[in-house]
């Protein structure tokens, strides 16, 4: 009895653990969704922080003491405005290029022209961006600007892949993309953010999504990064998890990336749009519509034509579904009003019906009284019948003394286990009350009590079983070949093999239940049964059926 309770406890614990693991991903994503909505509500705070930072950069530009300082100050403003407002970014590109030509510094000129190409690519002017990059001789680019040069060529090639119609155009641009990505990887330090992002992208294109996840998770765990960098890493990680088919982790990282984008106050992003598409596919139309609307507004404010075109591909579909959902909700409200009105009418009718039924109650009460009188008569007859059954039960009990003794023995054993369990509980409670935690831990870890109780349990089982079937061992040996006879080491104590077949004689034939009773694995019990069948005289398949006949009176 105590063993069954322990087994039930562990099964429940395992089920609860499995359920918790299954729901943990959903719980985390629900928490991140709440944080995303909170971030959206607080966007004005983050935008105010962004504007304050931009004002500081403008003041730094105004305070620049020479052309070189002004050039770098314009670069800082350009970096901040490119994902925030491409019109302003383009204006700072123009100023930077004018200043570069004014200084005559070839490195400044190359840097400024690459800036212009980068911004033109962001607003969808790919031909103009390529014309600028193509006009810059590769050997004239300073070593420290080469990664930027390859990045721009790689990025424009990626844009052209997305918008190419013909397969040959896509293949040609893909080859260009891979060439410049490899060049970029060869120049970037392996521990840099740029290297990690491009390397994971390359892994994903080669369907090695697991490797992409590994290097991204390792970078996140062992490096520091800005809020905007976190958005980029999470978006790349979401793409890798999408390749692995892990939708929950994909959603988790899209949520993280979207939150980071909004907190960093960038307007040129992809995660919120991708999250909206995923939510739309899951049927969450309300959030999908809201997130796409925010992404569209930001893309327009940024004048990021690439993002506007991407959103335009999906927004009409989501918006139509959203409008349909609203109409469906209104229709449901109208139907609900009609149903409530009908129910109100039925309620009035029901009240009238109840009033009518109440008039019939007096007649029903009279009929119930008569029925009660009849029931009393039937109860008298039933008592007489019960008395007869009691006498019959006594007769059966007289013929079942052995079985009663067997049951009494196990009832006493159960009572003894309860007393021992209570004493064990009191001992533990005593240890806790006096603060003997070390002794308590030692007691809890010890299996001596369990082993002693098992030995006692099996001894009692053997004694009771052999009392019920005193010739079982001899009868069982007669079923085995002469060279396979079982000899007990101790009189009145069965070995494991005999206990297996003793349980079978009692009608317990399921190996799982036998294994639980004897505390062995199912495989071990199965092996015992097979091994013993192989020792049988005559047909091996009939051994267990012949065991069931042991102790039965001959007809």
The tally of beta strands, per DSSP, is 0
- The helix tally amounts to 24
Calculate the mean pLDDT score and round it: 83
Unreliable residue stretches:
392-399
Order of helices and strands: HHHHHHHHHHHHHHHHHHHHHHHH
Shape descriptor: elongated
**Main sheet characteristics:** none
Helix-strand makeup class: mainly alpha
Beta-strand content: under 5%
Alpha carbon gap, first and last residue: 37 Å
What is the percent of helical residues?
over 70%
Radius of gyration from the CA trace? 41 Å
Throw out a few tags for this protein:
555 residues, single chain, mainly alpha
How does this structure look, described?
The chain is mostly helical. Helix content is 81%, strand content 0%. It is built from 24 helices and no strands. The protein has helices spanning 2-41, 43-62, 67-81, 86-103, 106-122, 126-134, 146-163, 167-187, 193-205, 209-222, 227-244, 247-263, 271-282, 285-302, 305-359, 361-398, 401-433, 437-445, 448-468, 472-478, 496-505, 511-518, 522-533, 543-547. The longest helix has 55 residues, at 305-359. The two termini are 37 Å apart. Mean pLDDT is 83; it is low at 392-399.
């Amino acid at each position: 009895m105590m063993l069954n309770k322990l087994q039930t406890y562990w099964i429940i614990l395992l089920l609860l653990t499995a359920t918790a693991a299954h729901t943990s991903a959903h719980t985390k994503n629900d928490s991140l969704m709440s944080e995303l909505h909170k971030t959206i509500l607080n966007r004005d705070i983050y935008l105010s922080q962004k504007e304050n930072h931009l004002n500081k950069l403008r003041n730094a530009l105004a305070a620049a003491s020479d052309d070189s300082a002004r050039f770098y100050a314009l670069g800082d403003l350009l970096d901040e405005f490119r994902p925030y407002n491409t019109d302003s970014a383009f204006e700072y590109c123009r100023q930077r290029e004018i200043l570069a030509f004014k200084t005559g510094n070839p490195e400044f000129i190359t840097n400024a022209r690459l800036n212009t190409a980068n911004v033109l690519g962001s607003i969808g002017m790919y031909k103009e961006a390529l014309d600028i990059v193509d006009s810059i001789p590769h050997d004239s680019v300073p070593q420290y600007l080469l990664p930027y040069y390859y990045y721009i060529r790689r990025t424009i090639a990626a844009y052209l892949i997305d918008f190419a119609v013909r397969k040959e155009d896509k293949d040609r641009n893909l080859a260009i993309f891979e060439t410049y990505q490899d060049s970029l990887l060869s120049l970037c330090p392996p521990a840099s953010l740029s290297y990690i992002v491009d390397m994971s992208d390359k892994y994903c294109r080669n369907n090695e999504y697991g490797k992409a996840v590994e290097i991204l998770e390792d970078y996140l765990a062992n490096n520091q990064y800005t809020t905007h960098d976190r958005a980029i890493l999470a978006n790349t990680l979401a793409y890798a998890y999408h390749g692995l088919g892990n939708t929950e982790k994909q959603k988790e990282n899209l949520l993280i990336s979207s939150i980071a984008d909004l907190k960093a106050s960038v307007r040129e992003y992809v995660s919120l749009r991708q999250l909206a598409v995923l939510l739309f596919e899951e049927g969450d139309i309300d959030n999908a519509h809201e997130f796409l609307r925010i992404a569209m507004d930001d893309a327009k404010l940024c004048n990021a034509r690439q993002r506007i075109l991407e959103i335009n591909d999906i927004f009409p579909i989501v918006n139509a579904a959203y409008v349909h959902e609203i109409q469906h909700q209104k229709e449901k409200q109208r139907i609900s009003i009609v149903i409530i009105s009908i129910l109100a009418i039925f309620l009035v009718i029901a009240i009238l019906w109840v009033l009518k039924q109440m008039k019939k109650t007096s007649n029903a009460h009279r009929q119930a009284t008569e029925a009660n009188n009849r029931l009393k008569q039937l109860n008298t007859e039933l008592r007489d019948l019960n008395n007869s059954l009691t006498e019959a039960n006594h007769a059966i009990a007289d013929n079942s003394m052995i079985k009663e003794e067997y049951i009494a023995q196990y009832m006493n054993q159960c009572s003894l286990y309860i007393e021992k369990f209570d004493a064990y509980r009191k001992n533990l409670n005593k240890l806790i009350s006096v603060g003997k935690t070390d002794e308590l831990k030692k007691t809890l870890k010890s299996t001596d009590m369990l082993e002693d109780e098992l030995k006692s349990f099996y001894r009692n089982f053997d004694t009771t079983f052999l009392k019920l079937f005193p010739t079982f061992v001899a009868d069982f040996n007669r079923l085995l070949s002469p060279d396979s006879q079982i000899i007990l080491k101790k009189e009145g104590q069965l070995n494991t093999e005999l206990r297996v077949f003793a349980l079978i004689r009692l009608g317990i034939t399921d190996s799982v239940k036998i294994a639980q009773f004897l505390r062995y694995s199912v495989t071990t019990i199965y092996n015992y049964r097979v091994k013993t069948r192989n020792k049988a005289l005559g047909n091996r398949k009939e051994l267990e059926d012949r065991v069931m006949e042991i102790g039965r009176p001959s007809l």
